[in-house]
Structure formats: structure tokens, C-alpha cells
Write a structure and sequence with these properties.
By secondary structure, the chain is an alpha+beta fold. It is built from nine helices and eight strands. The strands form two sheets. Strands 2-1-8-7-6 form a five-stranded antiparallel beta sheet. Strands 3-5-4 form a three-stranded antiparallel beta sheet. It is globular.
Amino acid sequence: MGLADRVAEVFSGQPGVFGVYARNLGTGETIAFNADRILPAESAAKTFILTYYSQLVSSGAVDPTSRIRLDDGNRYIGTGVLRFLGEGLEPTLDDLAWLMIIVSDNTATAMLLQSIGDPANVNAAMRGLGYPTANLNESITIERALAGEPFSTSSPRDLAEVYTRLDDRMRAMLFRQQHLIGLPRRLPHVSHAVDVGITMPVRVYNKTGNGAGTFIDSGLFETDECSWVVAAMAAEQTDFGSRADDVAPTAFGEIGEMLYNAWGQM
């Protein structure tokens, strides 16, 4: 059984809808399973925001050291810590980007996005890079999110290929994402290893997303010999979808290990 068939076999008999796209950046070998189906991307789409932000910083259009005041008007429910902190803090744009990625902070995400544009700007940037399905919901509100509307959508193909655009700022932030129960869960990767001078056998630059019945993981994976991009997306899950022993993260961990074993030593 080939690698693509083994990946598809992981989902055989499992509930819900799955999509996977992976591409070996050295050989061009591609794994595609529902790769062009548009699915909820949840917080994995914060990589779209990070990509747009990093473009603006590189072009000189925004100053990453600019400070934005935290007040009661910009505290948003959901993941993260910033909304619990005292009024009057003034994090920089880079601070907000770090929080958006490392702990998927929703308040930091909203503050950063409001400072650099809006979802339409991000979507236009994604289309300009050639990723037409990479999309933030342009009319999302807290109320609509609670009612079940997706924060974002994408095909697995576009979500994975965005990771071919990483610059040094993006790599530093994505390396340290702390949600590792998906694709990296069975790999020799530790998000803070680089900070103590340890080079891991595989380096992971990923962003995860989840909601009720959804789980998404995506990123760039690299060893000394090879690198690859991958996005795995699950929707309509009958369990919560994002606990460590739920179907989707367990399946994604198996896929992550398969790709590492097949491509990591090439």
C-alpha cells in the first residue's frame, strides 16, 4: 500500500468529513484526499493574518513596535490570555502576533487585525498569493461565531501551501505554537527546544484550529534532509473534535508520523 493509500486508510470508517493535502518540497510528491474541498479552518487561518502582517512589516507599511492599548472595548471571548489582563496594557503589534500564534489569543488577533486592516485585506492578500479558498469570514462577529458560523474556511491545499511563504518572523512564531496534539503529536519536536539550544530531529512550524466538531492542523515540517507542507482538516465530528484522544487529532498524529517516516530522511 502506497503512502497516499495509507493516509486515506486512516479515515476509513471514521465519522465526519476529512481533507488532507501534503507536498514534499524536495521531490514534489503530493498526497491529496479531499484536497480541494472547502472546510472550516478555524484558528489555523491565523496564519493567513500572520502572512499579511509580515508582508506589511517587510514592506515598511507598518511598524511592528507600534503599541495598541488594551481596554474593555477590545476583549474577545475564546482562547488566549490577553482578555484577562489589566486595562491599560499596550502590547506592540509584534506582541499581538506572538500571542495570536503561540496561544491562539483571540483578543490579540482582533487587535492586530483592527490595526492592519480587516478580513477583506487578508483575503485579498491570499488571493494575490494564489490561494483563492483561503478566506476569513468578512462579517464575523462574536454573536455569529457563537451561533456556529465559521471564523474562516479554506481547502487543505491552499492552507498547506501558505506555509511555503514563511519568512523569519513567521517561522520564529509558528515554531513556538504550543498546541501540538495534531500532526506533531508523535514526532520528536518540542516548541521551546530552540530556546535552550537544542536542535530537534524535525522542526515544526504549525498552527492549529478547533471548534465544536472541527479540528484542523497545518504547517511546514523540516529535517536536515527534507521539508514538506501539510494541512489536515476535519469537520462534522461526532466527538468534540479537539481533545487529545478524539478521532481527528489521533488520526492527524498518525498521518504526521507517516509523512515523517516516509519523507523525513530523504
